[in-house]
Amino acid sequence: MFEIATSILEDLNKPYKLSQEQIEFYQENRYLKLKNVLNKDVIELYNLLIREKVQELNTMNTPLEERDVYNKAFLQIMNIWTQSATIKEFVFSKRIAKIASDLMQVDGVRLYHDQALFKEPGGGFTPWHADQYYWPLESDKTVTAWIPLQETPLEMGPLEFSAKSHLMQEGRNLKISDDSEIEIQKKLRLGDFLQVKEAFELGEVSFHSGWIFHRAGANQTDKMRQVMTMIYMDKDMTLKKPENINQQADWETWCPGAKVGEVVNTPLNPIIYEKAS
């Protein structure tokens, strides 16, 4: 059995100090990029471990050119923490979960699910969308940590954000598609929302809320863009009645046994971080 070095575990759980300015920036813009969240040793280890697990679990064998827009955008493997004890240590990182909790200004966070997002060499763009279209969750107290497992230049297709776009109601009913790319981009331009398109340094992690609109460019390099994400929600989040078939599917898959109107407290949605009382 693979044993993780004590220093790695310490780094995954060591608190990251946010400034009041960073918290206020997130509250206003609903996204934030933070440098030096993870060190080189942590990233190199989990680059290898997550890559191996994605290769093991991936069932996509359709050639890239024959896929639809959604499946050209990335290979995705979810809830890897249930398949690997070593990757579970990463997904359950209190360092990252505490950042999510502090940014949302809540007393603690649960895991909604994790998700590896690998964009293959030549992989297509990820259309504009808001994640919470897919989630049967009662409030917007949600945040995704987007964690590149390598330096990610613009040519590799890093995540892009539309600052303050959580204020826009149009486009919230659109799933990831060609239509969402066209329609949401049009609305964002009309609303004069700032588009943030930047490379990610090694160890840099971004956080974005469920209703912020975001996208990613194509991977124009000959290397795989390897990203791990963790989606967190307020520890007191309640389940709402699904509003579309995707929310119904998410309920059954990521919150099995949860009941509408009650806290999403299932074995797949453990509390990862909680403030000391």
Automatic annotation (TrEMBL):
Keyword Endoplasmic reticulum appears in the UniProt entry: no
Entry's Gene Ontology molecular function annotations: dioxygenase activity
Record keywords: Dioxygenase, Oxidoreductase
Source superkingdom: Bacteria
Names of the cofactor(s): Fe(2+)
Pfam families xref list: PhyH (PF05721)
Taxonomic placement: Bacteria, Pseudomonadati, Bacteroidota, Cytophagia, Cytophagales
Record has Hydrolase as a keyword: no
Protein name: Phytanoyl-CoA dioxygenase family protein
Species of the source: Arcicella lustrica
InterPro entries named in the record: Phytyl_CoA_dOase-like (IPR008775)
